[in-house]
């Protein structure tokens, strides 16, 4: 059985001799294999009785996505007169809202079918219409049949929501550029200065104490401060809370206290993040719980230690039934994005409307102990900086699914939010058994030799963070190397993930840097150019897409972090350490911009690629995988450590830094 998504095509109703003659007709827009597909998680159950009331949500195609990208590039580039002029939530809503022509056409179609006009609701986000009708009415309207579906893995039964897309009802008026109709951009009044006290950067005073001499063995917050010139935090304002995404891994309060007592004594015992629960997510967990795996602990250890006394938020995503499954199988982000933007819950793009039932959690969760509320849509205001240390292989998800999410990251960036995502720990591959035993993609002969890009930092509107490390016997004053750690037998190696997306092309802000890398440091591997639907991966014997979005953008320390997990002290490795470091740095920068009466830095990448001298370039190390030596860290941008790590205050040379980075030039 297939699940058909209908598209209403044709035109507006028109008048002939005083009567309305309908020109609407139904066509199949998309067919999804639900019961018999290779990746199906659902099977059909009984057909709905005709008298059952069905909530119908009609998502309308948004417009001006190209305009949104142009606007983002303009407000994010330091040479632009629009630099820093981010949009408000209302301005983003108006920019992408479906045209009035489309809204009225769908409303007329519903009324013509017998729906009372007063029962049709238009969402605050302008992205969809809502109406309740009987199953019989819905079946006549859509020329289809409605069934319940049962989840094959969990046994959960639920009524299939008849969500369909008004995809092609886009007349020429809908494609008009709405730039002229937008009001003149102004800074959000919420960005007014919180503190008027001037900030006087302390002189660098990082003497090589025994602790800093041992940073190649044990990384602690003082090591991070010394490596990157990060000053002690001293502000807790209301607009620069640092946010962390967590899913299926949970922090233990006792672990935080142990870490602060031993490695960040300036943080008082009992300091905790604020929980923002998404669809039943909960925290903290008991210290002896198996779901306390270290990821959430390390995010909060690093973040709180570096920004204290600034407040910190944990977005704990999905209930205890779904979240551990997703960590074991696929980390997804749709329910998280739903909670930040109500319009995303039913947003239509690339043939997908709303969350994907065969990939994403579905709420209310009928399982025992599951979250019984409705899916949370637009319930939280996102923090200015969000650090994410979760992800999967790009190829784990359909291209349209990933593209739809990427649009949402773009909208968050337009509003001044910085999204930092750890690139990964397996070099040019995904984790083993993620898509294949080796984590590499297969060529036409099923040889696992093709490099695998990471998700979701393949999206060009996020900042991908790779890993670096202090070399053996080096100190916090010495140059770092690319992160790479192997077991004594060398059977298992971990290194900074980098490479090229198969789903997204090289964005404009990094084209020059990537072209320079190809001109001067091409490793000589055979390549291909992915087509529009990424169906030619590996074509001609190529092992990576030379025309793809390149990752990572930047890097930070990812090795030898001392950490308490379950009350036990150990060492942790991986780019998961690097993302919260960058999140903390950007948060401290935003604090100083707030004092100066400026908005947040927002989307970082255009500024960083335009000012590569403002970072510590990493020129040693590599990221092997897929039977190759991977890529090598070289002068300039590279697909191992990107542009490099945050600028060190211990630089021997006085340099003029950009407006964005000035607070961290402690010279």
TrEMBL record:
Active site: 295 (charge relay system), 299 (charge relay system), 576 (charge relay system)
KW Magnesium (keyword) present: no
Source superkingdom: Eukaryota
Subcellular location per the Swiss-Prot or TrEMBL entry: Secreted, Extracellular space
Pfam families: Pro-kuma_activ
GO molecular function: metal ion binding; serine-type endopeptidase activity; tripeptidyl-peptidase activity
UniProt source species: Elasticomyces elasticus
Main location: secreted
Cofactor binding remark: Binds 1 Ca(2+) ion per subunit.
Name by which UniProt lists this protein: Peptidase S53 domain-containing protein
Cofactor(s) required for function per UniProt: Ca(2+)
GO CC terms of this entry: extracellular region
GO process terms (BP): proteolysis
Sequence positions that bind Ca(2+): 617-618, 636, 638
Gene3D superfamilies membership: Peptidase S8/S53 domain
Alphabetical keyword list: Calcium, Hydrolase, Metal-binding, Protease, Serine protease, Zymogen
InterPro entries to which the protein is assigned, alphabetical: Peptidase_S8/S53_dom_sf (IPR036852), S53_propep (IPR015366), Sedolisin_dom (IPR030400), Tripeptidyl-peptidase_I (IPR050819)
Peptidase S53 domain mapped to chain residues: 218-658
